[in-house]
Amino acid sequence: MPANLLIADRANNRVIEVTPDRKIVWEFPRPGDLQPGQRFRWPDDAFYAPDGKSIVINEEESHAIVLVDYASHRIVWQYGVSEHFGYAKGYLNGPDDAYMWPDGNIGVADIRNCRVILIDHDTKAIKAQLGRTGYCAHNPPKSFGLPNGDTPLANGHVLITEILGAWVSEVGWDGTVYWTTRAPGIKYPSDAQMLPDGNILLVDYSRPGQILIMTQQGQPVWRYAPRFGPGMLDHPSLAIELGNGLIALNDDFRNRVIVIDPKTDKIVWQYGVDDRRGRTDGLLWIPDGIDLKPPTWGE
Q1: Which end of the chain is more exposed for a tag (fewer CB within 10 A), N or C?
Q2: pLDDT value for 299
Q3: 66-76 as b/e, with b when 16 or more CB fall inside 10 Å?
Q4: Which domain holds residue 41?
Q5: pTM higher than 0.85 for the full model?
Q6: Domains of the chain: total
């Protein structure tokens, strides 16, 4: 492991930061972190913000996004009404993969509203929207079939993953579609990421699950898909490349975060115990999101 990992430990209702030697060095919420009236349930993903000050967390089943100040462990911003879904201003329905963009605004895949939106941090107005609210079919940029991934790209575009049809597309916020392709052999695609060479990394949220690297034309480059044994995946939901060729992912229903070497297809690092849920050190319960801590983040 080259750096600390941020883990959204969904069923434990917490987000933790774990060192390469498996020590927890940051956690939210600790006792007293939540203020009167604040709720925090089902953290689905958590990502370090580019500003080096906050963590962006989406609570998919609670229909809210929060920013947590890293230093104070306090919620400093929220979009969405906890435990209430909708499509009007201020409401979400199954938000997934909330990211802070370099300008401080928040992008999110609003799954069951079938749209990808960019929320103004200051006014909470929707600055940009891809897809027609409530219309769930693959026809980018007019509509998307249950989008569950909206990864920011270095060129300012969005990498959108759609559950229906296993589609992945690169789209600009102005609606320009640069390419769109289907992920071959994937039942339930989740959270596509673009690698430095332009290939696409994504997982199959199924049992047994898969990891796939493919070209932008949909040609497989590498696939990891053991059907049984310690290497078998059970509903993995996010994989990321670590910069050293290794692949980290959260294997949700096996209650672990693992790192795989694609050269050998072997697990080379793990946090959590296979098929055992818990909250004490070394245990997880449905880890549903990860992020690698940038080397200068928070300095």
Answers
A1: C
A2: 63
A3: bbbebeebbbe
A4: 5-292
A5: yes
A6: 1
